Amino acid sequence: MAQDQSPPFIWLISDARNDEALESALGRLPRGSGFIYRHYHLEESERYKRYLALRRVARACDHTIVLADSALTAREWGADGIYGPPRALCPRREGLLHLATAHTMREVADANRFGSNMVLISPIFATNSHPNGKVLGPAKFRLLAAHAKAPVIALGGMNSHRALTLDWPRWAAIDGLS
User: By CB distance 3.0 to 4.6 Å, which of 32, 51, 102, 160 could disulfide with 107?
Assistant: First the structure.
């Protein structure tokens, strides 16, 4: 993502569950969307090999690519940014987007303090990742989002219908986009 571009509104997040559908899903996303590559389930060499294949597709669609890893690895792999808990993104690395995950007011405050470019607040709704987990719900999500200094991405059980219902422009999904 060029520094003068605004951050993407829609983000696809990789997971073992959606791996087989990722190329197709990346191609269906609106041009200039975002892609967060996690793939924690793979060994490092396989993870890198899979990343390269998906990076090729994502770049062809002008998508921003963010890696769930260190800033050093993100630079080595040619990613546009890093993703994780706010404290894991410190110290701030110039030239990389910092996408912080937040589930509590304290994590939103950390994202603010550490200068995150965007904050993914979750889980708003029940998810396949954590089917019996506690959810924020729309009201608590909006409360947390109101305290974020950076643009907020809604995450957790999201799909295009829920994004419309929530009336939130920036959102991310694993299953909801694959």
Answer: 102
